[in-house]
Write a structure and sequence with these properties.
- This protein is an all-alpha fold and 107 residues long.
- The chain is built from 5 helices and no strands.
């Protein structure tokens, strides 16, 4: 059974958004301005979001991706930060190892 895609007007309806939020993430309410941000994204607007750590940025692009047709690639900034920290730590360990072994680091 093929259902017709939801119209943008339907997808930006606050009740539809809350149902999608509950279905995909288990939350009953949005945090801060998440709902307005998601409505703007689903209506096709370009949106710049600046929120503190833990402010709910990820949900602002994950929920629209789940509700929209097609493929969406979501890259989590937290994973990038974690990976960068891991790489930095690995470099320190490598340099410490080289110093202890009286070797010159390759970089």
């Amino acid at each position: 059974m093929n259902s017709a895609p939801q119209s943008l007007t339907t997808m930006t309806d606050p009740e539809i958004l809350r149902k999608a939020l509950k279905l995909h993430f288990g939350f009953s309410t949005f945090k801060g301005q998440q709902q307005e941000i998601i409505q703007s994204l689903l209506s096709g607007a370009d949106v710049f979001v600046l929120m503190p750590t833990g402010g709910g940025k990820s949900l602002c692009y994950q929920l629209p991706a789940l509700m929209s047709e097609g493929t969406a690639i979501v890259i989590s900034p937290l994973l990038l930060t974690t990976n960068f920290d891991f790489t930095r730590q690995l470099n320190r360990v490598y340099r410490d190892f080289c110093i202890k072994k009286h070797r010159k680091p390759a970089f």
